[in-house]
Write a structure and sequence with these properties.
alpha/beta, seven-stranded parallel beta sheet, globular
Length: about 375
């Protein structure tokens, strides 16, 4: 059993982590959210953590007032989130924050020597080599929560790195699989948020629709599993049953299959190297039927091509890609730009923003420059 600091507890991953914690008997030591204090208060009363933090100061003040009848410590702002990440009573940090905002708390948890149940892919997208090096120095375990990376992690158990031929990274294809580029020009945010298989937050759902999510996951896989981009093949798998696989030097392929239920990879990240019973849905292969695979259409979905370009370049190019994409997706959700403007905005940033050196300062500088370019 583990003691958890759940960073981003009111989001999709955070709420499902609490389901797993309740089912498997894990202790919840800290909870954080940005501003959704209605749900954060409910969670705090149900799980009674040592600490609860809201990144938005006004929300934190309101939460402190609401929880005044408890002994739960309430903190505010980025420092409050960092305190939750460092909390000595938690041996595991579930990093379920969205975007580059997850980088500093993840590093804080790593510096505390915790296990990182990593659901914030942008941490490795933007600063993967730096984060993995810090984890090695501090003796912190990083166990992936993304369903695809969890599948790869599971498929690698008991193997030696030199035996791996390539990684097979699957993608659902999002709601617009098979659409031609010209048809995508009229896509609305409401339509793009209708994912066929998964229930996710708005940002991740739009990234899935543009296939940027798969590009970000390619970048994450490179750091997690120490492979170059040419050793990662992306396959569209509409059924979301085979979550990813590893092909070995003898051409044997080891895959992980399961129902499209994020509670399974969350649970494995907490229980690894053991497996335990939990709340995840059982896979019925008879009901699943046939499994299909297709190549991604890089012409219709150029965000994936842009991510591959950033992966091949390396350095701070991925941070530029991510920063511009965060802004572009927010502007699309606000109705300010069209669906096909997302790759245009990201491409413009990759074309124009200078590359600082790959240091933490350089990563943040690249992110901010990319955001300015995207806003412009």
């Amino acid at each position: 059993m583990r003691s958890l600091a759940i960073l981003g507890s009111t989001g999709s991953i955070g709420t499902q982590t609490l389901e797993v914690a309740a089912a498997c008997g894990h202790r919840v030591a800290a909870l954080t959210a940005h501003h959704n204090i209605d749900l954060l208060e409910q969670q705090a009363r149900a799980f009674h953590p040592i600490l609860a933090a809201a990144a938005e100061p006004t929300a934190a003040a309101a939460l402190a007032s609401r929880l005044a009848d408890t002994d739960i410590q309430v903190l505010a702002g980025e420092e409050g989130v960092l305190a939750a990440a460092r909390l000595p009573q938690a041996d595991t940090a579930v990093t379920a924050l969205v975007g580059i905002a997850g980088l500093a708390p993840t590093l804080a948890a790593i510096d505390s020597g915790k296990r990182i149940a990593l659901a914030n892919k942008e941490t490795l997208v933007c600063a993967g080599p730096l984060v993995m090096a810090r984890a090695r120095e501090r003796g912190a375990e990083i166990v992936p929560v993304d369903s695809e990376h969890s599948a790869i992690f599971q498929s690698l158990q008991g193997s030696r790195g030199r035996e791996v031929k390539r990684i097979l990274l699957t993608a659902s294809g999002g709601p617009f699989f098979g659409w031609r580029r010209e048809a995508l020009a009229s896509v609305t945010p409401e339509r793009a948020l209708q994912h066929p298989n998964w229930s996710m937050g708005a940002k991740v759902t739009i990234d899935s629709a543009t296939l940027m999510n798969k590009g970000l996951e390619l970048l994450e896989a490179m750091s997690l599993f120490h492979v170059p981009p040419e050793k990662i093949q992306i396959l569209i798998h509409r059924e979301s049953i085979l979550h990813s696989a590893v092909e070995y030097c003898d051409n044997s392929v080891i895959a992980q299959l399961g129902a499209p239920d994020m509670r399974l990879p969350i649970q494995y990240a907490l229980s690894w190297p053991e497996r335990v019973e939990g709340p995840a849905e059982e896979l019925d292969l008879f009901a699943a039927g046939k499994l299909t695979f297709a190549r991604p259409d890089l012409e219709a979905f150029p965000c994936l091509a842009l991510a591959i370009r950033a992966a091949q370049e390396g350095g701070t190019a991925p941070a530029i890609l991510n920063g511009a994409n965060e802004v572009a997706v927010a502007r699309f959700l606000a109705g300010e730009i069209g669906f096909l403007d997302i790759p245009r905005v990201v491409g413009h940033a990759l074309d124009t923003v200078a590359r600082p050196p790959l240091t933490l300062e350089g990563v943040y500088a690249a992110d901010q420059a990319a955001r300015r370019a995207a806003e412009a």
